[in-house]
Design a protein that fits this description.
The structure is a homodimer of 201-residue chains. With 201 residues, chain A is of the alpha/beta class. The first copy, chain A, has 8 helices and 7 strands, in the order αααββαβαβαβαβαβ. Chain A has 2 domains: 48 residues, Helicase, Ruva Protein, domain 3; 136 residues, Dna Topoisomerase Vi A Subunit, Chain: A, domain 2, CATH 3.40.1360. Chains A and B meet through helix 1, helix 2, helix 3, strand 2 and helix 5 of A and helix 1, helix 2, helix 3, strand 2 and helix 5 of B. The complex binds zinc ion (2 copies). Chains A, B: It comes from Neisseria dentiae. Chains A, B: InterPro entries: DNA_Rcmb_RecR, Rcmb_RecR, Rcmb_RecR_Znf, TOPRIM_dom, TOPRIM_RecR. Chains A, B: Belongs to the RecR family.
């Protein structure tokens, strides 16, 4: 497409890195940014640079965080005996909005993909094991998605905890089958926490 | 949401400038970029900065372009007697892919919105009038969308050309009603050009 200058084509290609953005959407986004949202485009560029530089992982729960500890891990009012394990930061946001968990979190920052041979390198298992050492944790709530990946991840976690002295539960299947946590409303999330199914006492 | 650090929240907000990206998508994009596509995020930031600096408007056809003239306007083999008027750069790409127009283009970089009082400030009418002065243009092909905005834009253009010495046509309505050019396949696009309806001889 010769009428696309290099810098424009480069922007289109760069936008395709975003999830669910194909060539057509990327072209439309690039047009929108350059023609109608130049200040927004500038802010996006700066926000990306800033986030790449500033955002690290909480040393305790592994979520995104700017200092050493995130706000939740640093909060003395949270109950350190209950640890909820989730896939990604958006799931923590959802749980907090549902206001149904007063314990702490651990964020795996990934899921196990059963279609790709149950590769465990995408989830922060080592960091989780380290987190549990000499901790006050008594109960672990597995809050992974109810999808093939979420089920596989829950299976890996339940195997990991099998011979360890924790109560282990998983969210109640009040969440719609195939549903992902970040698209579930607060009420349904809360219900699923209250009715969580014990896997091991 | 206290667990979102400032730089992460800022990135989420910045992503919401993109078309069709709401809070949930933005959160997912930010997670994807920082956790799984850091080099892609870096490239996106740089591509944005580069495009904001380098991409200007072609002095002749008004499309995005890095130098003074875009490749199509600079091409001596294009027929300067036929000028096709489109909404945005993606429409030029689509036409070129359909390989059905050997003339030149003019890109309005906007549409008239009939729901907002037919405000003409969003389309480059002044630049179009300037483009036509002392030009070799004999025929004008209006290739706006077949939507309310595209129809309103075509109406404004046909009024503009009413007393001017050009043949004026609009794309044949082979394009599905309500359809936008960028989502139409090349064959349908070509058909619509070949069967264009004369508005004025
Ligand atoms: Zn933390
Ligand atoms: Zn041009």
């Amino acid at each position: 497409m010769p009428q696309n200058p290099d810098a424009f084509t480069r922007l289109i290609n760069a936008l395709k890195i975003l999830p669910n953005v194909g060539p057509k959407s990327a072209q439309r986004m690039a047009y929108q940014l350059l023609q109608h949202s130049r200040s927004g485009a500038q802010e996006l560029a700066e926000a990306l640079q800033h986030a790449l530089k500033q955002v690290h992982h909480c040393t305790r729960c592994n979520t995104f965080c700017e200092g050493g500890l995130c706000d939740i891990c640093a909060d003395q009012n949270r109950d350190p005996r209950r640890l909820m394990i989730v896939h990604m930061p958006a799931d923590v946001s959802g749980m907090e909005a549902a206001n149904c968990h007063d314990g702490l979190y651990f964020v795996l920052m990934g899921q196990v993909n059963p279609a790709q041979g149950m590769d465990l390198s995408h989830i922060a298992l080592d960091k989780l094991v380290e987190r549990l050492q000499n901790s006050e944790v008594e109960e672990i709530i597995i809050a992974t998605n109810f999808t093939a990946e979420g089920d596989a991840t829950a299976y890996v976690l339940s195997e990991l905890f099998k011979n360890l002295p924790y109560k282990v539960s998983r969210l109640a299947r009040g969440i719609p089958l195939g549903g992902e946590l970040e698209y579930v409303d607060a009420g349904t999330l809360a219900q699923a926490v209250y009715e969580r199914k014990m896997l091991k006492e």
